[in-house]
Amino acid sequence: MRLTKYMFNKMYKESINPSDNLLSKILSGKAVSSEVEQFALWIKDSQNERYFEEYKQLWHTLNSTPASTQRSDQSLISFLNYVESSKRRERFRRRVLYWGSSAATLLIMAGIYMVLWMAGTADDYNKLAFSELKYNSDSIKIELSDGSVINPLSSKSNKSLLSDLNSGEDGLLQEIREINYLNRVKSISDSSDTLRYNAVTIPPGERFVVVLSDGTKVYLHSGSYLRYPICFGSASREVTLDGRAYFDVSKSKVPFIVSTEDMKVEVLGTSFDVEAKKSAAKSSVILIEGSVKVHTHGISRIIAPDEMFSFNREIREGIVKIVDSKAMTQWKDGILALREISFNDMLSSLSTWYGVEIVNRSSVSPNERFYGKFDRENIEAAVKTIALSAKVRYRIEKGKLIIVDYK
Amino acid sequence: MQDNTPNNFFSSNKTLLDALKDGKEEAYEYIFLKYYTNLYSYAFRILNNESDTKECIQSTFCHLWDIRKSLNINDSLKSYLYRSVYNGCIDIIRKKRVLEKYEEKGFLDIYMYGVVQNPEAEIKLQGSETRKAVQNSINSLPERCREIFIRCRVMGYSHAEIASSLNISVKTVENQMTIALTKLREKLKNFILF
């Protein structure tokens, strides 16, 4: 049977995209509740998400309804009228103040002036300049084996130091947010001296990738610390973590071990996510593929893909849950997905994620649960989403984001 | 349409900003004429309602006038205006509880990150090659064919609805869509849409 390209495309399209009708309704705000739900389910798929992005561009390109000349002329006239009357009001206020000779009149008029003036400037909260937020100013630090500390993102001198350190022909600082030790394998492993260590500290608001000497890629979450040998020895591959990291471990017969304050995670080659902050109440391991063994407080557990092992330090209990591992580890690609999380926990996650200080003065119930996906680049959309869903307002004070009740 | 006004005086952004701060009415008239149409189109695609859109754009310009003395624009005036319009739109949506159907199921983030066109994306789209390519290819379709394509893919009508509103058979609609898609696919190879 001959399947033409057209037929194939059509079938393919229809299978990934049930109907542009729905997307069009979503974009024009005409979708009803059940359609929104259908859409939310559909767009979870990354291929669908890409399709929607493209469809959105098409829709916005072809759907523009520019104002008619008549409308724009009318609006200009009414705007200029507004300008005129506002000027008149100002002149009036000035004159009144000028002529108010007795102190009493002056006081009363000044009172009126203040009221008018305040009426004009109130309700500015939504026009906030997010640029006034003070972002965390700590930088990423790499501690070298000789005890010196460098910042991989800062000056050129440091960069040259880094490439000395990496000493590869390929210049190892590939991306500015990545450091690569892959080439160390050949250069060092011959001289089998004791292991030399580096350590990297990621402050709030930053992310970083380390490629270890065996090719294992480690994505480090904001507020994390990783200590690792510049080059692994032949007997073991072991790193130390405080905080959260996603590991893409290269396959090898030598086991790869992540040690944290109270866990050891052992694998041969796979992808997984470890969250183990010393100060937190819980630590967890999420497995994406392969299998890993977790040792903690005398318990050993093998977990399977899409399972999350979490250990509660307070009650000293470990449980295994089935989770959507891809969604929960999207942070490595710049998207923080939060699920079933309380308002305060959400704010503290976002504070770390964006590197800003957030003060909660609202009275959102601790029993309310929040879901959300937050793009690394767009704190403004994040804050607007939160304000809308938790029914709070926000303002920026001395560089901090303040959350208050909506009244 | 960019600079056919005789006011070359305003061609430098700095002078324009100073004039706005000083409350020079010509400057306000100039930016109003320059940006109104596109800002209106942008806001309309978010609000989908004429009177809200008019209101939103109007209050953006009035607000700009009101705060002129303390006006502090870090990036370009254009992005400032688009951002203000966007904020205004979100505010209107909030007041009208348009987003309740997203909110009740916890899908607000999908709306804020995915659905609503943010000002940066809008400005980017305006000058983008993609936009030009799409516009050119669609304009190159025969008129009837283009109309059917837009009704179907952009406005989201079904084939049957289009057939009855244009008084043609469903078969004709299907044929025209095939023609449209074949042509667009040729021209816009990098798109998964076609």
Overview of this structure, please?
- The complex is a heterodimer of chains A (407) and B (194).
- Chain A is of the alpha+beta class and 407 residues long.
- Chain A has four domains: 5-62, no CATH class; 69-122; 141-328, Jelly Rolls; 334-405, Phage tail protein beta-alpha-beta fold (3-Layer(bab) Sandwich), CATH 3.55.50.
- Chain A is built from eleven helices and 21 strands.
- In chain A, the strands form three sheets. Chain A has a 16-stranded mixed beta sheet that branches. A three-stranded mixed beta sheet of chain A has the order 18-21-20, covered by helices on one side.
- In chain A, strand 7 (224-229) and strand 8 form a beta hairpin.
- In chain A, helix 2 packs across helix 4 (46-62).
- The N and C termini of chain A lie far apart (68 Å).
- Residues 1-16, 97-127, 155-161, 163-175 and 186-190 of chain A have low confidence and may be disordered.
- By secondary structure, chain B is mainly α.
- Chain B has two domains: 8-126, RNA polymerase sigma factor, region 2, helix turn helix motif (Rna Polymerase Sigma Factor, Chain: A); 129-187, Arc Repressor Mutant, subunit A, CATH 1.10.10.10.
- Chain B has eleven helices and no strands.
- In chain B, helix 3 (50-66) packs across helix 4 and helix 10 packs across helix 11.
- Chain B starts with 12 loop residues before the first helix and ends in a 7-residue tail after the last helix.
- The chains are: A alpha+beta (407), B mainly alpha (194).
Name of the CATH first level of the largest domain in chain A = Mainly Beta
Largest sheet of chain B: none
Q: What's the structural domain tally of chain B? A: 2
Helix and strand sequence of chain B: HHHHHHHHHHH
Low-confidence stretches of chain B: 1-7
In total, the number of strands of chain A is: 21
Q: Overall mean pLDDT score of chain B? A: 86
Which structural category do the helix and sheet elements of chain A fall into?
A: alpha+beta
